[in-house]
């Protein structure tokens, strides 16, 4: 496993489920037969989303790749089929920054009449200049959080129906980040989200990642009350060099050097970065576990605001209000 530096949040020597931060998505799902399951993975064209699609498909899961660019999605599907010719992979268009597109994805998915056991809310963007989505919402918040909030809300009925038909637990995984630690800097201030003057590229990203965790917490609480056999957890992939740094030209240039120097100290490889979400999607040892924050395939510490039930409820109500402003 190697030496674990004290400053590295990305690295740990092993958690309660027996995996270390060096474990890959393939390793943590080794030997699991998931051929009876269907999963939707958002942002499955690259990075840890693609790796999750590849590994889940390898374990037999029928994977619906929910992608913004169908051309890239088809190429990603081909790569998966090259490795696993028997893989069941579908590509459906989904632009999370457009509420209309989320509704259209839902219609296309339900038209296929498929079951749904696993939803991995993985897609995300980081930074960039202030920009509004087609719905007039700040782009990172719209993509990373609100699009996923709506997607999950729409798909829940299908998942609950599948749980009843198959008797298998449904699982929702929100891909968050330890960046959530900075998400409450200066308060949540949801009302200022669309205000360019209050925009800070990284702090806004952090806010969206905090929102991903709060969403998982609140949804988990509601589903427990309803007695639904669906778990909801959030996952921190660790620090992984992926295309997510595309808005930071400097980082893109230095990334190969950083990778080679720091790889074993702080950074994870993409297969390692995808491990926690694949573990949460397939592993039997997390049966019934819900409302938790995971990193390195184990329970992880979140900030006080990320476990605040009032804040989670406030965000939920705000999200419902934002959705109510649009009619479809
Ligand atoms: N990398 C890290 O160090 C790190 C750390 C903590 C958390 N995370 C989280 O991990 C998740 C995956 O990130 P990654 O590092 O794998 O980044 P990535 O390689 O850039 O992948 C992001 C994926 O999201 C998709 N996407 C972006 N905007 C979208 C939209 N509007 N609608 C639908 N899909 C969209 C991208 O599609 P296109 O191909 O069309 O752009 C791509 O498939 C994100 O939620 C991120 O916040 C990453």
Automatic annotation (TrEMBL):
Transmembrane segments: none annotated. It comes from the Eukaryota. CDD domains: retinol-DH_like_SDR_c_like (cd05327). It holds the Pfam family adh_short. PANTHER family: SHORT-CHAIN DEHYDROGENASE TIC 32, CHLOROPLASTIC-LIKE (PTHR48476:SF1). This is Uncharacterized protein.
